[in-house]
Known about the structure:
By secondary structure, this protein is an alpha+beta fold. The protein has one domain. It has four helices and eleven strands; from the N terminus they run ββββαααββββββαβ. The chain has helices spanning 69-77, 84-88, 94-104, 178-191; strands at residues 24-32, 36-37, 57-58, 64-68, 105-108, 111-116, 119-120, 137-144, 150-158, 163-170, 204-209. Strands 1, 3, 4, 5, 6, 7, 10 and 11 form an eight-stranded antiparallel β-sheet that branches. The chain has a three-stranded antiparallel β-sheet with strand order 2-9-8, with no helix packed on it. Strand 8 (137-144) and strand 9 form a beta hairpin. Helix 1 runs antiparallel to helix 3 (94-104). The longest helix is centred in the last third of the chain and has 14 residues, at 178-191. The radius of gyration is 18 Å and the shape is globular. 28% of the residues are buried.
Amino acid sequence: MAKEAQTNGKEPKTRSEAGTREAITRTIQLRGLTDIMFDRYPGDNDTKLEPWQKLYLAGEEGRTICLPSANIMSFLSAQNTDSAPKRLLDPRKYKAFAQACGSFVTINPHMIPFLRDGQPILFGKFTGEEDKESGVRIDRRVARLKDGIPNPKVRPVLPPPWELHFQLRLLPNRLIQEQQLMNVFGEGLLCLGLGTFRGQFGKAEIVFWE
Length: 210
């Protein structure tokens, strides 16, 4: 269960009817409930990547599997593709909420490491269809384009258990409150998820929000 934001025994400062008058920084911990899929874009449509190159890798050795904070921001603020506000809120209101998230919410660090048992998940190498060190496997399926044209997709998938720890900052604004944000975030993780192929992959739950 997500914890309510703590006030350290002090009375919370007055908030406007909509929004918040002060910047709020929260430490957030997510627990993965399903596999999460990756499909890093190489920068153009002509470059072909090997399955392992579609992961987001960082760290000193370049082996730590990460999720870019931009992926979470897309989950909260995208209007033209699927996002938590678009999936959950009134069609007449979700754009305003998504725009507010894009304007007043920041996520750090830029590359968020995936953790397992408190340690970063490191990618080794594929032996056949799986990396024994991280558990990442290759998912192969065929998408159908317009007119039924097959589009083979080969992407890496990380199975649970996995966790993400990061900081979320909500800047002062008149549009969204922290509780609204937490509600959309939490329900969106269950119905939509993170990573690519959202809705089928990347489902998670909030275990810490403080």
